[in-house]
Amino acid sequence: MLDGKVKDSKYPVGFHITPLAGLLNDPNGLVKYEGIYHVFYQLNPADTIHKNKHWGHIYSEDLITWHRAPIALAPDAWYDKDGVYSGSAIIIENQLHLYYTGNVIDEAGEKHSYQCLAVSNDGFTFEKKGPIFEHPKGFTRHVRDPKVWYDEKEACYYLVLGAQRENLTGTTLLYRSKDAIVWESMGDLITDTSKLSQIGYMWECPDLIVQKDQALFIYSPQGIEATGDNYQNIYQTVYLTGDFQENHFTPNMDMREVDWGFEYYAPQSFYDENRVISYGWMGITQPEFESSMPTVTEGWLHCLTIPRTLHLKDNQLFQKPVEELTALRKQKQVFTVDQALNTVIHSSQLEILISQPTGLASFDLTIDENLTLSYDATDFSLKLTRLNWYTNQLEERKTQLTSALKNLQWFIDGSVSELFLNDGQSVASARFFSSFVEQKQLEVTFAAQSTQEMVVYELKPLTIEA
Ligand code: FRU
Fold first, then answer.
1. What region holds the Glycosyl hydrolase family 32 N-terminal domain (predicted)?
2. CATH number, domain with residue 78
3. 135 lies in the same domain as 184
C-alpha cells in the first residue's frame, strides 16, 4: 500500500493490503456497507508477533483508492482482553454487526473463548455488546471465528464457528437465529464426513457460501498430513462443494486446496451484489520462517491477497482477480519470445499475461532468479520454486492441471506473487524476497519451447488517501 512502514520498505508492496506497522493476519468483517467496502483485519499494531490482536480497518469505494481508519476493535473488555480474534460482519436494519471471538487468559493461565458482538451505525465507531451465547459443551477452548449470513429461503440468520472437540478432532458448529440476538445451536454443520480423507485437529475460519442450487464450504483445517503434492504447508485452506439443507452441509467431494502456493490461509468471502469476493491472508508459515521474514526488521509483517471473485463450475472453484484491478495497469509491453528472453522491467509491480487457446508449450518463467514457474505440457504439471529466505535453499510446490494450460495471469507486487491459471481454476500465491526488488525493478526470464507471446503491464500501487 506504500504507506506506513511499507513506504520505506526494501520490498515495496503496492497493491496488496498491508498493516501500517506491526503484524497483519486474517481478513475480518468484510462487507459493503452504505456504498463503502470495509476491510478489517487481524492486527498486532505494536509488534510482529502473534499477540495483542486488534481489528485494523481500511475502506474504499472502488477497491482502488483506500483510506485508513482508526483501529475498529481493541482488546479492552473482560471478554476479549487477550485478543479480539477473527470474525465477520452483517448488516441488520442499516446497522453494521460485527461478530468476533474474544480471547481471554485467566489468572491461572487458562484460555477461554467468547463469541461476541459489536454494532455500529456508521461503520467507523463500534459499541461492544459482549458475549452472545455460552461456550458449547464437549469442546476445548478452541472455538472461534464466527461467520454470519442471512438465509432468504429459511428467513433466518446462520452462524458457523470453527471448533475442536474434546477428543481433539476439528469440526464446524452451526447456529441459527430469527433475530440475530437469540442463537440456537444446531450441532455440527457436517455430520456426513464419509467423503473426507482427513479431518485434522482444529478447523479455523469456516465460511459457507450458499448459492441457489449448491453450496461452497471453505475452511482452514490444522493437522492435515501432506499427501503427494498436496497439503505441503504448515496449515491448509481447503474447499468442499455440496448441499446445504435442513441445517446440514453434505459434501459431494473430498477436500481440495484453494491455493497450491506457500502461504495462503484463513480467507473470508462477502457478497457484493451478485459477486462473491474473497480476501485471504498471506500468510501462514513455520514460526522460524515467519520471525525471519525480511520485513520483520522493518517493523511490519504480512499482507492480504488481492480481492478474488469466487465461482463454481462442475464442482470446481474458480478464483479471479476482481475486474477493478485492471485500472492499475499503466505501461504495456508485448514480447514475442522465441525460446529465450531476459528483460528488466523498471517497476516492482507487474502483471504478466500469457495465453494460447490451443495450450501453451512447456516453459520456465523466472522472476529475479528467485521465483520460477515451470510448466510441463506433456503432463500438464506445474511447479513453483522459490528461494527460502531462512534456509537459503530452493523449495517448491507442485500441482497437476486436469487439462492443458491455456492462460496465465501472474501478479508480482514487490515481494508478493499471485498466480492465476486457466481462468482461475488453479491459483498459487507466494512471498519471495530478492535483491532486485530493493532496486525497484524486476528481472523477468522466460524460456519457452516454442514461440510465445508475453504481455507485461507495469502496475500502479493502490492509492491511499488521508
Ligand atoms: C487464523 C486464526 C484464527 C484466529 C486468529 C487470531 O489465522 O488463528 O483462528 O481467530 O487467527 O489472530
1. 16-321
2. 2.115.10.20
3. yes
Instruction: Please tell me the residue having the least CA distance from ligand 1 atom 8.
Output: 204
List, for residues 182-202, the tens digit of each pLDDT value. Answer: 999 999 999 999 999 999 999
Ligand 1 interacting residues, C-beta cut-off 6 A: 25-26, 42, 53, 85-86, 101, 144-145, 204-205, 265-266
Q: Is 26 a catalytic residue?
A: yes
Question: Which residues touch 164 (CB under 8 Å, ≥6 apart)?
Answer: 139, 140, 142, 143, 170, 171, 201, 202, 203
Residues 6 or more apart from 31 whose CB is under 8 A from it? 37, 38, 89, 90, 91, 96, 270
Contact 318, 311 (CB under 8 A): yes
Q: Identify the CATH number of the domain in which residue 456 sits.
A: 2.60.120.560
**Is 450 within the bounds of a domain?**
yes
Please tell me whether residues 315 and 455 are part of one structural domain: no
Q: Give the residue whose CA is nearest to atom 9 of ligand 1.
A: 204
| Domain final residue pick, 272, 299, 323 | 323
Out of 26, 207, 368, 413, which one is annotated catalytic?
26
**Which ligand 1 atom sits closest to the C-alpha of 101?**
10
Q: Tell me the whole-structure pTM to 2 decimals.
A: 0.97
- What's the structural domain count of the chain? 2
CB 144 within 8 A of CB 160: no
In a shared domain, residues 274 and 176: yes
The Å distance, Cα 451 to ligand 1 centre, comes to 46
The pLDDT tens digits of the residues spanning 273-307 come to: 999 999 999 999 999 999 999 999 999 999 999 99
Range of the domain at 408: 325-465
